[in-house]
From TrEMBL:
It holds the Pfam family Acyl-CoA_dh_N. Its cofactor is FAD. Residues 122-217 form the Acyl-CoA oxidase/dehydrogenase middle domain. This is Acyl-CoA dehydrogenase. CDD domains: SCAD_SBCAD. InterPro entries: Acyl-CoA_DH_CS, Acyl-CoA_Oxase/DH_mid-dom, Acyl-CoA_Oxase/DH_mid-dom_sf, AcylCo_DH-like_C, AcylCo_DH/oxidase_C, AcylCoA_DH/ox_N, AcylCoA_DH/ox_N_sf, AcylCoA_DH/oxidase_NM_dom_sf. Gene3D superfamilies: Acyl-CoA dehydrogenase/oxidase, N-terminal domain (1.10.540.10), Butyryl-CoA Dehydrogenase, subunit A, domain 2 (2.40.110.10), Butyryl-CoA Dehydrogenase, subunit A, domain 3 (1.20.140.10). It comes from the Bacteria. Keywords: FAD, Flavoprotein, Oxidoreductase. Residues 6-117 form the Acyl-CoA dehydrogenase/oxidase N-terminal domain.
Amino acid sequence: MQFILSEEHEMMRKMVREFALNEVAPTAAERDEEERFDRKIFDKMGELGLTGIPFPEEWGGAGADYLSYVIAVEELSRVCGSTGVTLSAHISLASWPIYKFGTDEQKERFLKPLAEGRKLGAYGLTEPGSGSDAAGMKTTAVRDGDEYILNGNKIFITNGGEAEIYVVFAVTDSALKHKGITAFIVEKGTPGFSIGKKEQKLGIRSSPTTEIIFEECRIPVSQRLGEEGQGFKIAMMTLDGGRNGIAAQAVGIAQGAFDAALDYAKERKQFGQTLSKLQAIQFKLADMATQIEAARLLTYQAAWRESEGIPYGKASAMAKLYAGDIAMQVTTEAVQVFGGYGYTREYPVERMMRDAKITQIYEGTNEIQRVVIANYLLK
Ligand code: CAA
């Protein structure tokens, strides 16, 4: 057993770190302030081969593994949590289910442009009345010849409005509860499919979050993903991987806040010495670094399991739970190290603290992660 990254993984980290520092970090505060998504950043990620990291080359991917993918999300999130989740939702939530459950024709038509970064992906599960209780969705899909007619609306869609390809879930047989849910691939521009309200958020403000609306929206059977009734399983299995992407985002945000706090502690003088000489600050830094390292190990372990084909649902839920919680703690402590300055927009730590909060909420709240973990322990 080795706890060092391979040359390939180190190269991935170096490449993404350079890109993040040069092309993402400079506008992170401004995009947050303006709630502005920058498509050019996504396009550049496509040029670098980041948009299809874990998928085979034949489908436009980079043919790398899931560890490379989480390293990329971590490094992006270290400077900008919004950019981290853009990539995570694109790869884990939109591209992955098509890779795993799509026909070759669907992979050619939808996965390839996603993996190559020519199109952006999104995932539609949550509805106004069903968040944690995902199976309680109300959006319907009624078969009509070679088509399904979709009606309903989904909310909190990451990459909403900007994405061209949406993997969505709808009820095809309400009597069957979760066994009556089916997955579909929907393209932006399809008649009857529209983008609703854009959310104004506490954090990850340069990642667009919108409602999506279906009104008599006709989707050909060829765009059904998997079999009728298989949708809930597809949604859950997709989230198994997605949650580890969020764990990586949380690790990255925490690391970014820690880096800033460490630098500040070494520079800022009070009582005739730098903050770093004060044991109160040293203990904070030691706790923060330890928590980040533990969260990173859980995240990398879950990614390694997925790459090796070993079950990873529990590992991924544990990683997301722990990394989300410590990201909130670490970023809050980072603001504390900065004192009054940390509370201002002059420094990035307040943005990181705002960005961290969502990692305890989306892709299953941390309470739901505990439910998932307990189910594994008790079954
Ligand atoms: N893999 C495969 N199958 C799974 C599974 C998994 N990970 N989890 C559940 N299933 C299967 C079960 O085996 C069961 O199948 P059978 O009927 O064949 O036995 C079926 O699904 C139903 O399982 P449960 O009885 O456990 O389902 P439930 O209704 O009680 O819900 C839940 C379980 C864990 C609470 C689930 O609803 C859940 O994960 N909720 C949270 C939803 C969520 O994470 N939403 C986030 C939305 S995405 C997002 O945040 C957007 C973003 O853009 C970033």
